[in-house]
Specification:
Elements (H helix, E strand, L loop, with lengths): L2 E8 L8 E3 L1 E5 L2 E2 L6 E4 L11 H4 L6 E3 L9 E3 L5 E3 L5 H9 L3 E4 L7 E5 L1 H7 L7 E5 L15 E5 H10 L14 E5 L13 E4 L3 E10 L16 H9 L1 E2 L8 E12 L1 E4 L3 E4 L1
Parallel strand pairs: 12-13
Antiparallel strand pairs: 1-2, 1-13, 1-19, 3-4, 3-18, 5-9, 6-7, 7-8, 10-11, 12-17, 14-15, 14-19, 15-17, 16-17
């Protein structure tokens, strides 16, 4: 017994703020309605991601929700509090104007879908508006085709890790929204406990079985303003100083928090479900 599900979150539009849910079906592609839409740049053909803050940090001023009675439509809340639907006729023009970049909102990843990931340390040094080195990342390498997840279908984070980050931060807090997990697990262990879950199976509730496939390397996103949360560079600096480890044993160390998992057995997950090592 590792703990229980403390929080479930999904992000109907990639890199926008998400929403809490009390329960969700989880398929091989992840939580229902999670990252099923994304913005694609009409200039570059790449997926818009706050991992490249100079262009896309303002995505985190928008929030997306997927009401149960709305079919495939997503409700997007703009910075001024007004709302629009993903199905509105002029949605691309509205979002392009807000972001000052020509974009299209789509449910279909382009062939070879990729995004720019700014070097996190360069963003810390130069700031979010600077043009810094970036690497091109092919999205969804550890997930079934058709979604916009960064790597794997499910991202898990423990309260132990959040407590450890808070204890090391000069602010004395760690906001889970900054790390964009799907499942927050309430655990009694101390420290970065999920570091030890690599290649382990996790059973959540009665049906869902996941396999941890890598630790989660952190980019510049946790440091950015998230809606009402202000910019916080220590959200990454703490990890760089205290949990710089290889995401996989074959890779170079990076600041990490949480783990990515693939879905072995789909099922329903609910807040309060027990989480066990398989």
């Amino acid at each position: 017994m590792l703990g229980t599900v403390a929080r479930l979150r999904r992000y109907p539009v990639k890199s926008m703020l998400g929403e809490d849910v009390e329960g969700s079906d989880v398929t091989l592609a992840g939580l229902a309605r999670d990252r099923r839409l994304a913005l694609v740049s009409l200039r570059t053909g790449k997926v818009a991601s706050a991992k490249y803050p100079r262009l896309w940090r303002h995505l985190l001023a928008l929030s997306a929700a997927a009401p149960d009675d709305a079919g495939d439509a997503v409700l997007i809340t703009l910075p001024d509090g007004k709302t629009v639907w993903s199905t509105d006729a002029h949605i691309d023009e509205i979002l392009s104007g807000l972001l000052n970049e020509p974009v299209v909102l789509t449910a279909t990843p382009p062939a070879g879908a990729s995004l720019d990931r700014a070097v996190p340390e360069a963003v810390l040094r130069a700031g979010v508006t600077a043009q810094v080195p970036a690497e091109i990342i092919e999205i969804g390498a550890g997930a079934p085709p058709g979604t916009f997840v960064d790597f794997a279908p499910v991202h898990l984070l423990t309260t132990s890790t959040l407590d450890r980050v808070a204890g090391l931060s000069p602010h004395g807090r760690a906001d889970p929204e900054r790390y964009r997990p799907n499942i927050v697990i309430r655990t009694e262990a101390e420290g970065f406990t999920e570091n030890d879950w690599l290649e382990r199976a996790l059973r959540i509730g009665d049906e869902l079985v996941l396999r941890v496939i890598t630790r989660t390397p952190r980019c510049a996103v946790p440091t950015l303003a998230h809606g009402g949360l202000p910019r916080d560079t220590d959200a990454l600096r703490v990890l760089a100083r205290h949990n710089r480890i290889p995401p996989l044993e074959t890779l170079d160390p990076e600041p990490c928090a949480g783990v990515y998992a693939e879905v072995l057995s789909p099922g329903r997950v609910r807040v309060g479900d027990p989480v066990r090592l398989g």
